[in-house]
Amino acid sequence: MIEILSPTMVARARETGAVVAEILQTLRSRATVGTNLLDIDRWTAAMIDEAGAESCYVDYAPAFGRGPFGHYICTGVNDAVLHGRPYDYTLADGDLLSLDLAVLTGGVAADSAISFVVGESRPAESVALIETTERALSAGIAAARPGARIGDISHAIGSVLGGAGYPINTQFGGHGIGSTMHQDPHISNTGQAGRGFTLRPGLMLALEPWVMTDTAELVVDDDGWTLRSATGCRTAHSEHTIAITDDGAEILTARAPASHLARP
After folding, report:
1. Which residues are a divalent metal cation 2-binding (predicted)?
2. Which of 9, 96, 156, 217: disulfide with 126, CB 3.0–4.6 Å?
3. Does the predicted TM-score (pTM) go above 0.90?
4. Does domain 7-251 have CATH number 3.40.50.1820?
């Protein structure tokens, strides 16, 4: 299903996006050396409840997962890039942490992800991965405008990821979003310009470029959820929910400026 939202629903989506952005920003500041992933999950649950929002993840049970996700946020460390299920792990200096969060308020969902390095270390490989996904996300957003096509977004994202020399996995990518978290259309992280669904005002999309250093192949943890690079290489993931407007794209999950190069 491809859903076109009314102006009233888009206004509600702005409120949801602000909740997601604030929670991620707060978690980024709290996720330091010595933080346990299960603490991050507990903090997230408390902030979702305080905001009067509803988790899109805790009861989420798609065909590709193993039962309900059972947690409130995805936490990917180093080689874990997607659907990272929180577990008893304490963050160390130099870990590359990806946080992916989706919630629902007022009947509308918003979805966003950030990646950053924990502690004082700044491994060049990790910084390059993060910067590339952020640049690809910006390129995808710039390509999203009325009359453009989904393939234009995919091509813009893929040009940045591929141009940086990273292999691109096309199994998982961005997606439509609205009254539910995951909707059509699928937005591959590479593709051919001029192809696919035509964008129009009221369409909401979650764009999520993610990349692995030296492989496009994923493996699944025993938890049935966490997706890791097949070679154990580092990974990064950036995501925003946007709404197509008459003039272009509005970022609904925009956060206050913060550089992964600076200490959280």
Report:
1. 111, 175, 208, 239
2. 96
3. yes
4. no
Tokens representing 35 are 């933080």
pLDDT confidence of 64, banded at 50, 70, 90? confident
Q: Which of 108, 13, 102, 23 is nearest to 55 (CA)?
A: 102
Q: How confident is the model at residue 264 (pLDDT cuts 50, 70, 90)?
A: very low
The radius of gyration of the chain from alpha carbons, rounded to an integer in Å, stands at 17
- Domain-by-domain residue ranges, the chain? 7-251
- The answer to whether the annotation marks 208 as part of a ligand binding site is yes
Ligand-binding site membership of 15 (annotated): no
71 in a labelled binding site: no
Mean pLDDT of the 209-233 span: 97
Any binding-site annotation on 111? Answer: yes
Q: Which string of b and e fits 126-156 if b means at least 16 CB within 10 Å?
A: bbbbbbbbbbbbbbbbebbbbebbbbbbbbb
- 100 annotated to a ligand binding site: yes
Chain centre distance of CA 146: 23
Query: Tokens 């989420």 — which residue?
Result: 60
Residue 65, pLDDT score? 83
- Ligand-binding site membership of 131 (annotated): no
